[in-house]
TrEMBL record:
<dbReference type="GO" id="GO:0005634">
    <property type="term" value="C:nucleus"/>
</dbReference>
<dbReference type="InterPro" id="IPR045028">
    <property type="entry name" value="DinG/Rad3-like"/>
</dbReference>
<dbReference type="GO" id="GO:0016818">
    <property type="term" value="F:hydrolase activity, acting on acid anhydrides, in phosphorus-containing anhydrides"/>
</dbReference>
<keyword id="KW-0067">ATP-binding</keyword>
<dbReference type="GO" id="GO:0005524">
    <property type="term" value="F:ATP binding"/>
</dbReference>
<protein>
    <submittedName>
        <fullName>(diamondback moth) hypothetical protein</fullName>
    </submittedName>
</protein>
<dbReference type="InterPro" id="IPR027417">
    <property type="entry name" value="P-loop_NTPase"/>
</dbReference>
<dbReference type="InterPro" id="IPR006554">
    <property type="entry name" value="Helicase-like_DEXD_c2"/>
</dbReference>
<keyword id="KW-0547">Nucleotide-binding</keyword>
<dbReference type="GO" id="GO:0003678">
    <property type="term" value="F:DNA helicase activity"/>
</dbReference>
<keyword id="KW-0378">Hydrolase</keyword>
<feature type="domain" description="Helicase ATP-binding">
    <location>
        <begin position="2"/>
        <end position="347"/>
    </location>
</feature>
<dbReference type="GO" id="GO:0034085">
    <property type="term" value="P:establishment of sister chromatid cohesion"/>
</dbReference>
<dbReference type="InterPro" id="IPR014013">
    <property type="entry name" value="Helic_SF1/SF2_ATP-bd_DinG/Rad3"/>
</dbReference>
<dbReference type="Pfam" id="PF06733">
    <property type="entry name" value="DEAD_2"/>
</dbReference>
<dbReference type="InterPro" id="IPR010614">
    <property type="entry name" value="RAD3-like_helicase_DEAD"/>
</dbReference>
<dbReference type="GO" id="GO:0003677">
    <property type="term" value="F:DNA binding"/>
</dbReference>
Length: 347
Protein backbone atom coordinates (compact mmCIF):
# COMPACT_ATOMS: atom_id res chain seq x y z
CA UNK A 1 0.00 0.00 0.00
CA UNK A 2 1.31 3.43 -0.93
CA UNK A 3 2.31 5.87 1.80
CA UNK A 4 -0.62 7.85 3.22
CA UNK A 5 -0.21 11.61 3.47
CA UNK A 6 -1.91 13.22 6.46
CA UNK A 7 -2.49 17.02 6.47
CA UNK A 8 -1.07 17.57 9.94
CA UNK A 9 -0.76 21.27 10.90
CA UNK A 10 2.95 20.66 11.51
CA UNK A 11 5.42 17.85 10.94
CA UNK A 12 4.08 14.94 13.02
CA UNK A 13 6.20 12.90 15.38
CA UNK A 14 6.74 9.24 14.56
CA UNK A 15 4.24 8.17 17.22
CA UNK A 16 1.59 10.48 15.73
CA UNK A 17 2.28 9.26 12.19
CA UNK A 18 1.98 5.64 13.31
CA UNK A 19 -1.21 6.39 15.24
CA UNK A 20 -2.89 8.02 12.22
CA UNK A 21 -1.79 5.28 9.83
CA UNK A 22 -3.08 2.46 12.04
CA UNK A 23 -6.37 4.30 12.58
CA UNK A 24 -6.72 4.87 8.83
CA UNK A 25 -6.06 1.21 8.00
CA UNK A 26 -8.47 0.02 10.69
CA UNK A 27 -11.25 2.16 9.22
CA UNK A 28 -10.38 1.06 5.69
CA UNK A 29 -10.67 -2.61 6.70
CA UNK A 30 -13.92 -1.98 8.63
CA UNK A 31 -12.13 -3.30 11.67
CA UNK A 32 -12.32 -2.68 15.40
CA UNK A 33 -9.36 -0.89 16.93
CA UNK A 34 -8.29 -0.08 20.46
CA UNK A 35 -5.66 2.66 20.57
CA UNK A 36 -3.66 4.15 23.40
CA UNK A 37 -0.93 6.75 23.54
CA UNK A 38 0.90 8.58 26.35
CA UNK A 39 -0.38 11.91 27.65
CA UNK A 40 0.76 14.87 25.59
CA UNK A 41 1.31 12.98 22.32
CA UNK A 42 -1.52 14.72 20.47
CA UNK A 43 -4.11 11.95 20.47
CA UNK A 44 -7.06 14.24 19.67
CA UNK A 45 -5.31 15.86 16.72
CA UNK A 46 -4.12 12.47 15.46
CA UNK A 47 -7.65 11.05 15.64
CA UNK A 48 -9.08 14.05 13.76
CA UNK A 49 -6.48 13.97 10.98
CA UNK A 50 -6.47 10.20 10.63
CA UNK A 51 -10.25 9.73 10.61
CA UNK A 52 -11.10 12.77 8.47
CA UNK A 53 -8.43 11.93 5.90
CA UNK A 54 -9.89 8.44 5.64
CA UNK A 55 -13.40 9.88 5.22
CA UNK A 56 -12.22 12.23 2.48
CA UNK A 57 -10.44 9.42 0.62
CA UNK A 58 -13.39 7.09 1.11
CA UNK A 59 -15.84 9.54 -0.46
CA UNK A 60 -13.47 10.20 -3.36
CA UNK A 61 -12.88 6.49 -3.98
CA UNK A 62 -16.62 5.82 -3.86
CA UNK A 63 -17.28 8.43 -6.54
CA UNK A 64 -14.39 7.22 -8.70
CA UNK A 65 -15.63 3.64 -8.42
CA UNK A 66 -19.12 4.69 -9.49
CA UNK A 67 -17.77 6.53 -12.52
CA UNK A 68 -15.61 3.54 -13.44
CA UNK A 69 -18.54 1.11 -13.21
CA UNK A 70 -20.78 3.43 -15.24
CA UNK A 71 -18.19 3.74 -18.00
CA UNK A 72 -17.68 -0.02 -18.06
CA UNK A 73 -21.41 -0.79 -18.23
CA UNK A 74 -21.97 1.73 -21.01
CA UNK A 75 -19.18 0.11 -22.97
CA UNK A 76 -20.60 -3.39 -22.44
CA UNK A 77 -24.11 -2.35 -23.48
CA UNK A 78 -22.97 -0.53 -26.62
CA UNK A 79 -20.57 -3.29 -27.71
CA UNK A 80 -22.89 -6.19 -26.99
CA UNK A 81 -22.91 -8.50 -30.03
CA UNK A 82 -25.85 -10.43 -31.38
CA UNK A 83 -26.10 -14.17 -30.87
CA UNK A 84 -28.57 -16.95 -31.54
CA UNK A 85 -30.24 -16.69 -28.13
CA UNK A 86 -31.77 -13.23 -28.64
CA UNK A 87 -34.05 -13.62 -25.60
CA UNK A 88 -31.12 -14.16 -23.24
CA UNK A 89 -29.27 -11.32 -24.93
CA UNK A 90 -32.17 -8.92 -24.38
CA UNK A 91 -32.53 -10.05 -20.77
CA UNK A 92 -28.86 -9.35 -20.06
CA UNK A 93 -29.14 -5.95 -21.69
CA UNK A 94 -32.16 -5.01 -19.56
CA UNK A 95 -30.35 -6.10 -16.38
CA UNK A 96 -27.29 -4.01 -17.23
CA UNK A 97 -29.46 -1.02 -18.13
CA UNK A 98 -31.21 -1.21 -14.75
CA UNK A 99 -27.90 -1.39 -12.90
CA UNK A 100 -26.62 1.53 -14.96
CA UNK A 101 -29.66 3.61 -14.01
CA UNK A 102 -29.10 2.88 -10.30
CA UNK A 103 -25.42 3.83 -10.51
CA UNK A 104 -26.23 7.04 -12.38
CA UNK A 105 -28.79 7.88 -9.71
CA UNK A 106 -26.20 7.42 -6.93
CA UNK A 107 -23.64 9.53 -8.77
CA UNK A 108 -26.22 12.22 -9.47
CA UNK A 109 -27.12 12.25 -5.77
CA UNK A 110 -23.48 12.81 -4.80
CA UNK A 111 -23.13 15.68 -7.27
CA UNK A 112 -26.39 17.29 -6.15
CA UNK A 113 -25.28 17.19 -2.53
CA UNK A 114 -21.95 18.76 -3.45
CA UNK A 115 -23.77 21.55 -5.27
CA UNK A 116 -26.23 21.96 -2.40
CA UNK A 117 -23.50 22.46 0.21
CA UNK A 118 -21.58 24.77 -2.10
CA UNK A 119 -24.69 26.92 -2.49
CA UNK A 120 -25.26 26.68 1.25
CA UNK A 121 -21.87 28.25 1.94
CA UNK A 122 -22.72 31.16 -0.33
CA UNK A 123 -26.13 31.62 1.26
CA UNK A 124 -24.74 31.62 4.81
CA UNK A 125 -21.99 34.07 3.82
CA UNK A 126 -24.63 36.38 2.36
CA UNK A 127 -26.75 36.15 5.52
CA UNK A 128 -23.77 37.14 7.64
CA UNK A 129 -23.00 40.09 5.39
CA UNK A 130 -26.60 41.31 5.60
CA UNK A 131 -26.67 41.51 9.39
CA UNK A 132 -27.44 45.16 10.04
CA UNK A 133 -27.00 47.45 13.03
CA UNK A 134 -30.78 47.71 13.24
CA UNK A 135 -31.08 43.96 13.80
CA UNK A 136 -28.41 44.10 16.48
CA UNK A 137 -30.31 46.81 18.35
CA UNK A 138 -33.54 44.87 17.98
CA UNK A 139 -31.86 41.84 19.52
CA UNK A 140 -31.09 43.79 22.70
CA UNK A 141 -34.80 44.54 23.18
CA UNK A 142 -35.87 41.02 22.31
CA UNK A 143 -36.23 39.71 25.86
CA UNK A 144 -38.14 42.83 26.97
CA UNK A 145 -40.71 42.36 24.20
CA UNK A 146 -41.00 38.70 25.10
CA UNK A 147 -41.76 39.56 28.74
CA UNK A 148 -44.51 41.97 27.65
CA UNK A 149 -46.00 39.32 25.41
CA UNK A 150 -46.24 36.93 28.36
CA UNK A 151 -48.29 39.42 30.36
CA UNK A 152 -50.92 39.53 27.61
CA UNK A 153 -51.56 35.78 27.64
CA UNK A 154 -55.14 34.99 28.64
CA UNK A 155 -55.22 32.97 31.85
CA UNK A 156 -58.00 30.72 30.61
CA UNK A 157 -55.79 29.41 27.82
CA UNK A 158 -53.18 28.10 30.23
CA UNK A 159 -53.03 24.39 30.95
CA UNK A 160 -51.00 22.40 33.48
CA UNK A 161 -47.55 21.38 32.37
CA UNK A 162 -47.79 17.97 30.77
CA UNK A 163 -45.57 15.17 32.00
CA UNK A 164 -44.17 14.37 28.60
CA UNK A 165 -40.71 12.83 28.57
CA UNK A 166 -40.65 12.05 24.87
CA UNK A 167 -37.59 13.88 23.60
CA UNK A 168 -37.44 12.59 20.03
CA UNK A 169 -36.87 14.82 17.07
CA UNK A 170 -40.30 14.12 15.55
CA UNK A 171 -41.79 16.79 17.82
CA UNK A 172 -39.78 19.37 15.95
CA UNK A 173 -40.45 17.98 12.49
CA UNK A 174 -44.22 17.69 13.06
CA UNK A 175 -44.62 21.20 14.43
CA UNK A 176 -46.88 23.33 12.26
CA UNK A 177 -44.79 26.05 10.68
CA UNK A 178 -46.35 29.47 10.11
CA UNK A 179 -43.62 30.68 7.76
CA UNK A 180 -44.59 31.24 4.14
CA UNK A 181 -41.15 30.34 2.79
CA UNK A 182 -40.97 27.07 0.90
CA UNK A 183 -38.71 24.44 2.40
CA UNK A 184 -35.97 23.23 0.11
CA UNK A 185 -36.17 19.67 -1.08
CA UNK A 186 -34.22 17.53 1.32
CA UNK A 187 -31.71 15.08 -0.04
CA UNK A 188 -31.54 11.83 1.87
CA UNK A 189 -28.07 11.17 3.17
CA UNK A 190 -26.93 7.58 3.59
CA UNK A 191 -23.27 8.48 3.40
CA UNK A 192 -20.61 7.29 5.81
CA UNK A 193 -20.26 9.35 8.99
CA UNK A 194 -17.78 9.59 11.84
CA UNK A 195 -19.09 9.52 15.41
CA UNK A 196 -17.08 10.72 18.39
CA UNK A 197 -18.29 10.05 21.92
CA UNK A 198 -16.60 11.42 25.01
CA UNK A 199 -17.17 11.57 28.74
CA UNK A 200 -17.12 15.36 29.04
CA UNK A 201 -18.17 18.35 26.95
CA UNK A 202 -14.73 19.92 27.38
CA UNK A 203 -13.20 16.99 25.50
CA UNK A 204 -15.70 17.47 22.68
CA UNK A 205 -14.79 21.16 22.51
CA UNK A 206 -11.14 20.11 22.35
CA UNK A 207 -11.87 17.97 19.29
CA UNK A 208 -13.56 20.92 17.59
CA UNK A 209 -10.56 23.10 18.38
CA UNK A 210 -8.19 20.54 16.88
CA UNK A 211 -10.25 20.29 13.68
CA UNK A 212 -10.09 24.07 13.31
CA UNK A 213 -6.29 23.82 13.26
CA UNK A 214 -6.33 21.56 10.19
CA UNK A 215 -7.24 21.93 6.52
CA UNK A 216 -10.47 20.06 7.28
CA UNK A 217 -11.79 23.25 8.89
CA UNK A 218 -12.98 24.50 5.49
CA UNK A 219 -15.06 21.58 4.24
CA UNK A 220 -16.10 19.37 7.16
CA UNK A 221 -19.62 19.43 8.58
CA UNK A 222 -19.38 18.94 12.35
CA UNK A 223 -22.33 18.74 14.76
CA UNK A 224 -22.10 18.48 18.54
CA UNK A 225 -25.19 17.15 20.29
CA UNK A 226 -26.11 18.04 23.86
CA UNK A 227 -29.17 18.10 26.09
CA UNK A 228 -31.67 20.94 26.42
CA UNK A 229 -30.02 21.80 29.72
CA UNK A 230 -26.83 22.75 27.85
CA UNK A 231 -28.40 24.22 24.70
CA UNK A 232 -31.46 26.12 25.94
CA UNK A 233 -31.12 29.89 25.42
CA UNK A 234 -34.58 30.82 26.68
CA UNK A 235 -33.83 32.46 30.07
CA UNK A 236 -37.25 31.53 31.49
CA UNK A 237 -36.58 27.85 30.81
CA UNK A 238 -32.83 27.69 31.42
CA UNK A 239 -33.23 29.14 34.92
CA UNK A 240 -35.07 25.97 36.00
CA UNK A 241 -31.66 24.22 36.15
CA UNK A 242 -33.12 20.72 36.57
CA UNK A 243 -32.93 18.82 33.27
CA UNK A 244 -36.34 17.14 33.69
CA UNK A 245 -38.08 20.45 34.42
CA UNK A 246 -36.37 22.03 31.42
CA UNK A 247 -37.49 19.18 29.17
CA UNK A 248 -41.08 19.40 30.37
CA UNK A 249 -41.24 23.16 30.09
CA UNK A 250 -39.73 23.11 26.59
CA UNK A 251 -42.23 20.53 25.34
CA UNK A 252 -45.14 22.31 26.98
CA UNK A 253 -44.24 25.58 25.26
CA UNK A 254 -44.60 23.85 21.89
CA UNK A 255 -48.08 22.49 22.48
CA UNK A 256 -51.32 24.03 21.33
CA UNK A 257 -54.93 23.26 22.06
CA UNK A 258 -58.19 23.94 20.23
CA UNK A 259 -60.94 26.16 21.54
CA UNK A 260 -64.48 26.49 20.20
CA UNK A 261 -65.14 30.02 19.00
CA UNK A 262 -68.48 29.67 17.20
CA UNK A 263 -71.50 27.35 17.50
CA UNK A 264 -74.82 27.02 15.68
CA UNK A 265 -78.32 26.94 17.21
CA UNK A 266 -77.93 23.27 18.14
CA UNK A 267 -74.66 23.91 19.88
CA UNK A 268 -72.57 22.34 17.13
CA UNK A 269 -69.08 23.76 16.78
CA UNK A 270 -68.70 25.75 13.57
CA UNK A 271 -65.13 26.92 13.99
CA UNK A 272 -62.11 26.07 16.10
CA UNK A 273 -59.01 28.11 16.65
CA UNK A 274 -55.67 27.10 18.09
CA UNK A 275 -54.52 28.62 21.35
CA UNK A 276 -51.17 28.21 23.03
CA UNK A 277 -51.06 26.21 26.24
CA UNK A 278 -48.54 28.71 27.57
CA UNK A 279 -46.21 31.37 26.23
CA UNK A 280 -44.67 30.06 23.02
CA UNK A 281 -40.88 29.90 23.01
CA UNK A 282 -39.60 32.70 20.76
CA UNK A 283 -36.54 30.63 19.83
CA UNK A 284 -38.63 27.69 18.60
CA UNK A 285 -39.10 29.19 15.16
CA UNK A 286 -38.75 27.11 12.00
CA UNK A 287 -37.14 29.84 9.91
CA UNK A 288 -34.59 30.85 12.54
CA UNK A 289 -33.77 27.25 13.49
CA UNK A 290 -33.16 26.48 9.80
CA UNK A 291 -30.81 29.46 9.49
CA UNK A 292 -28.90 28.31 12.56
CA UNK A 293 -28.76 24.76 11.22
CA UNK A 294 -27.33 26.00 7.91
CA UNK A 295 -24.71 28.10 9.67
CA UNK A 296 -23.78 25.09 11.82
CA UNK A 297 -23.22 23.00 8.69
CA UNK A 298 -20.96 25.67 7.19
CA UNK A 299 -18.99 26.88 10.23
CA UNK A 300 -17.39 24.43 12.63
CA UNK A 301 -18.71 25.28 16.09
CA UNK A 302 -18.24 24.02 19.59
CA UNK A 303 -21.08 24.28 22.10
CA UNK A 304 -20.27 27.86 23.09
CA UNK A 305 -20.13 28.94 19.44
CA UNK A 306 -23.53 27.38 18.78
CA UNK A 307 -25.08 29.09 21.80
CA UNK A 308 -23.68 32.44 20.68
CA UNK A 309 -24.99 32.02 17.13
CA UNK A 310 -28.35 30.80 18.45
CA UNK A 311 -28.81 34.02 20.41
CA UNK A 312 -27.74 36.06 17.41
CA UNK A 313 -30.18 34.35 15.03
CA UNK A 314 -32.88 33.81 17.69
CA UNK A 315 -32.96 30.11 16.87
CA UNK A 316 -32.91 27.14 19.23
CA UNK A 317 -29.47 25.43 19.31
CA UNK A 318 -30.98 22.19 20.63
CA UNK A 319 -33.28 21.66 17.66
CA UNK A 320 -30.85 23.17 15.14
CA UNK A 321 -28.15 20.65 16.10
CA UNK A 322 -30.57 17.75 15.73
CA UNK A 323 -31.88 19.05 12.43
CA UNK A 324 -28.28 19.26 11.16
CA UNK A 325 -27.39 15.75 12.32
CA UNK A 326 -28.45 14.03 9.10
CA UNK A 327 -26.16 16.20 6.97
CA UNK A 328 -23.19 16.06 9.34
CA UNK A 329 -20.00 14.25 8.40
CA UNK A 330 -18.72 14.14 11.96
CA UNK A 331 -21.10 13.98 14.93
CA UNK A 332 -20.06 14.44 18.55
CA UNK A 333 -21.95 13.68 21.73
CA UNK A 334 -21.31 12.80 25.33
CA UNK A 335 -22.12 9.32 26.59
CA UNK A 336 -25.34 10.44 28.26
CA UNK A 337 -26.76 11.74 24.97
CA UNK A 338 -25.57 8.57 23.23
CA UNK A 339 -27.36 6.31 25.71
CA UNK A 340 -30.66 8.20 25.37
CA UNK A 341 -30.94 9.40 21.80
CA UNK A 342 -28.42 7.89 19.38
CA UNK A 343 -28.62 4.54 17.65
CA UNK A 344 -25.62 3.61 15.52
CA UNK A 345 -25.90 1.03 12.76
CA UNK A 346 -23.01 -1.14 11.68
CA UNK A 347 -22.44 -0.95 7.92
Amino acid sequence: MEEIEFPFPFKPYDIQQKFMKELYLTLEKRGLGIFESPTGTGKSLSICCGALQWLKDHVQKEEEQLEKCITQLKSEISSQTSNDDWLQEEYEKIKKTQVLAELNSKLDHIKKRRTYFSDLKSRVAKQKANLSIKESVRLKDFNKKYDKEKENINEENKEPIAEDHDLILEEFEEKECSDDEETEEKLNDNNTKIYISSRTHSQLSQFVGEIKRTVFNEDTRVVTLASRQHYCINPDVAKLKNVHLINERCLDMQKSSTKSTAVDEDGKVLKKTKTKSCTACPYYNQSNVTKLKERLLVDIMDMEDLLKNGKELKGCPYYASRAALEDAQLSQFDRQVYNKNITLKTV
